[in-house]
Write a structure and sequence with these properties.
Layout (H helix, E strand, L loop, with lengths): L7 E7 L10 H16 L8 E3 L9 H8 L5 E3 L7 H14 L5 E8 L22 H4 L6 H16 L3 H15 L13 H6 L2 E3 L2 E2 L9 E8 L1 H6 L5 E11 L13 H12 L8 E4 L4 H10 L8 H5 L18 H4 L8 H13 L13 E9 L5 E10 L1
Length: 389
């Protein structure tokens, strides 16, 4: 079933805080929910569908529906890490098209900064019941070194350089300087990135995303409701989702699940990569961005290093403006699930509500892409294409 044009994003809100030691996880979920509803011009009683992932406290949707005092007839707690919230937008659109709900609320919240979580450099014991744990945990994998393996392989196979990866951080910093809520607002250079401490060879500290508290929320609604609201309408054109594993031992670190989710989204939307005017791309690390740009079709495989160099991702300068809020590299990465903020900034761009210094002129077609899990092990990918109506 195609969801092209069958649902709209009518509300979007990003929590302004980057550290919330005085707030509970449930409270952050509630605050972003209220923010997105206010943005849409809707009330709590209008919501009849609720979506959350593993960041939600308690029993996920059961706990949060009760905490928020919602009356819903459809819930979804799909959890694929950083790609969860793009999948939630897709599933909300499908549910609306099937008549399961008419106004879907999607919330994200996290407190990793207040909790002192070493999200990239400490091994995660995990649930012993997870099938891969017994084989992988003895080797103490961390998020950073799993992504570093992908970067090292890309460098070996395609000649990608640390300087090219650094340009991704440079572009993000050029955008973050205009975001008053960004955790890192200082513009950096390629030399700054290369001079920062090595975390997991070849990734430096500035190749890694920030760790923040906060969250965000989205409202997805039936076309009739969207047209009744006094807000710019963002139409959902196409979605794609995929899971990439290790192929029973035939591991290939050179591509991501975006190679599958991207073409599916473009086919449903009826557009091509060259039509996209703005891209929100998951940026847990600089290598994450580079690989997804290739796999989404913005350049040929192996040419990502050249594509991102020399400011090509900077709004107003390059061919593909990306992450104009500063992204996870500079702005916000709550709950290890940065996909939510990718959709929010794409909505801002399509509405013409991004900061004037980074707003893409006449932005009518945008892409958001999320990755969840680890590029070096197994991960989910989700691609969302949206249009300003």
């Amino acid at each position: 079933m195609s969801i092209n044009g069958k649902a709209y994003i009518v509300g979007a809100y990003e929590h302004p805080t980057r550290k919330a030691p005085d707030k509970s996880l449930a409270q952050l979920h509630a605050e972003v929910a209220l923010g997105a509803l206010a943005d849409a011009g809707l009330g709590k009683d209008d919501v009849d569908g609720y979506f959350c992932a593993g960041d939600a406290p308690g029993m996920g949707p059961l706990s949060m529906v009760d905490y928020l005092n919602l009356r819903v007839r459809h819930v979804d707690s799909t959890d694929t890490g950083g790609s969860s919230y793009l999948i939630h937008v897709a599933h909300a659109a499908e549910a609306i098209a099937l008549g399961k709900c008419r106004v879907a609320l999607i919330t994200l919240a996290g407190r990793p900064r207040s909790e002192g979580m070493a999200t990239g450099t400490a091994p995660r014991a995990g649930n012993p019941g997870i099938p891969e744990i017994q084989f992988e945990y003895p080797y103490a994998p961390t998020v950073a070194n799993m992504y570093a393996m992908c970067a090292m392989r890309h460098m070996h196979q395609f000649g990608t350089t640390s300087e090219q990866l650094a340009w991704i951080k440079v572009a993000a910093s050029h955008h973050a300087q205009h975001n008053p809520h960004a955790l890192l607002r200082e513009v950096v250079t390629v030399a700054d990135v290369l001079a920062s401490p090595m975390i997991a060879d070849p990734l430096h500290r500035l190749d890694c995303c920030v760790i923040t508290d906060g969250g965000g929320a989205l409202i997805v609604a039936h076309p009739e409701i969207a047209k009744s609201l006094n807000r710019p309408r963002v139409k959902i054109l196409g979605v794609g989702e995929a899971v990439k594993g290790q192929f029973g031992g035939e591991v290939d670190l050179t591509f991501s699940g975006a190679a599958w989710s991207g073409p599916r989204a473009f086919a449903e939307a009826g557009v091509a990569p060259g039509d996209i005017q703005y891209a929100s791309i998951y940026d847990s690390f600089t290598i994450t961005v580079l690989m997804q740009i290739e796999d989404l079709g913005f350049c040929e495989k192996g040419m990502g290093g050249r594509f991102v160099a020399d400011g090509n991702l900077i709004s107003g300068v390059g061919k593909l403006p990306f992450n104009t809020d500063g992204g996870g590299l500079c702005n916000n990465h709550p709950a290890n699930r940065g996909g939510m903020t990718k959709v929010i900034e794409a909505v801002r761009q399509l509405r013409g509500e991004a900061h004037p210094a980074v707003q893409v002129k006449n932005c009518a077609l945008a892409l958001a892409h999320g990755t969840g899990g680890s590029l070096g092990l197994r991960h989910g990918s989700a691609t969302l294409i949206m249009e300003r109506e």
